[in-house]
């Protein structure tokens, strides 16, 4: 999981979530990511590249020079630094709710000489992005967000007209990742995002463990 989510209350009405064992549900939702240096050992493990395919993901995003990108649920910056090195990106926002992750990304960007990375401390229900962006990327973050329709409706207000929203999240039955009740089909994700004003534009099927869906703001 990349989403550095603090304690959240999962408000989904999905029957599977309602029927999940209380202890398992509570353990996942109360999972914290306070020690960024420790989490970096797994989040940035080179072995992850084999199934996460970060270079191919960035290529598939078809970034254009001058675009402003937001990596929401950036964690330790696994994708942030790769986005920052792609094309001529003037600015990549690394957005996270955990202060330790925000600090970690700041130090990582400084260490790697990436002057176009800006770390942003998010709130529980908003990104706190300071300006409109062209692309928002969420990797293994969608399932952490409570009240998702309201969240993405608000997110759309800080996206430029025609901006894209890329969602990468674990498939049902895939190894590792969150419990099954926190995994969604593309149809379920699209139904929620449609209520927030997004329509599915592109689907990529090359990731072995995750869905890769790209939406546009209507």
Describe, in plain words, how this protein is organized in 3D.
- The chain has 218 residues and is an alpha/beta fold.
- It has one domain (15-217): Vaccinia Virus protein VP39 (Rossmann fold).
- It has helices at residues 15-18, 22-29, 36-43, 49-52, 54-60, 80-84, 99-111, 148-156, 186-195; strands at 68-72, 91-96, 117-121, 133-139, 159-170, 198-204, 210-217.
- The protein has a 7-stranded mixed beta sheet with strand order 3-2-1-4-5-7-6, sandwiched between helices.
- Residues 1-31 have low confidence and may be disordered.
Could you give the order of the helices and strands? HHHHHEHEHEEHEHEE
Given this structure, which CATH class is correct?
Alpha Beta
CATH architecture: 3-Layer(aba) Sandwich
CATH superfamily: Vaccinia Virus protein VP39
Helix segment tally: 9
Could you estimate the helical fraction of the residues in percent?
25-40%
Cα-atom radius of gyration: 16 Å
Count of beta strands: 7
Please name the CATH topology: Rossmann fold
Strand order of the largest sheet: 3-2-1-4-5-7-6
Sheet-strand content, in percent, reads 15-25%
Total domain units: 1
Largest sheet: 7 strands, mixed
Intertermini distance: 29 Å
**Shape, principal axes of CA atoms:** globular
Query: pLDDT below 50 for ≥5 consecutive residues: which ranges?
Result: 1-31
Report the average pLDDT across residues.
Answer: 85
Structural class comes to: alpha/beta
